[in-house]
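The methods section describes the discrete structure representation at length, but only in general terms. An entry of this sort, consisting of the sequence and the corresponding backbone structure tokens, reads as follows.
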Amino acid sequence: MSGGPEFEKVENPLVQQLIGMGWKHNTGSLDHPSVSGRDSFREVLLKDDLRAALKRINLRDGQPWLDDSRISQAVSALDRISKPRLMEANQEATKLLLEGCVVEGLPGWDSGRARSIHYLDWDNPQNNSFRVINQFRVDTPGKAKEFIAPDLVLFVNGIPVVVIEAKSPSVAEPIAEAVNQLRRYSNERKAAGEVEDNEGNEKLFFTNQLLVATSFDEARVEFERAASLTRNERERRLLLERQGLRTWPRPAA
């Protein structure tokens, strides 16, 4: 949405707040995927950002060591997750984000032992890239809708970790409507047997950590899988808060 009370009172102020916290902002396009750094609307990763981050944050003696082949292996591991249920896919993706991906080592480095490379720099958040894109189009494989376009998607190192749906305060029940729209985007209504056809694309939510429904000064946040995380994992998931997203919720210890 490029105007109206939803954009002016909810979406744009949030974007401006994120920019003030150091996030880069791109306005998405419903016609050209290249505007959001993708080759097609079927993709959900910003692969140029991801490849650059992998090379930047995985160092040997302070210097990058990953070649294109190893970087492609790590991107593929995150991009080609195949699980029958969204929760299972999210768990696999989250494990990769927390633990990294194992790739072949280098001759002469620790006897060529395989190495774990990381998608995120948990210890030094400033080494990561933070980007917000509004109206992020993702094509759907079903019949109900050709595509979805969440109001805001937040990316860390090109990985979508937050999906936000904003509603105008003039809507009768804005938070409930935003939550219902997020359920459509993630195909939860189909999974619950409420509809027959795909309404969204689960792939956008494989790496998701936060779902946010917001209207003016009110918001509802769902923290993915908080109950199943270890204490150490929960501490790592505060990455965005340390970067400046102060509404990042803290799961109970």
The chain has one domain: 4-242. Residues 4-242 form one domain. The first strand starts at residue 24 and ends at 27. Helices lie at 4-20, 47-57, 68-79, 86-99, 174-185, 188-191, 231-236, 239-243.
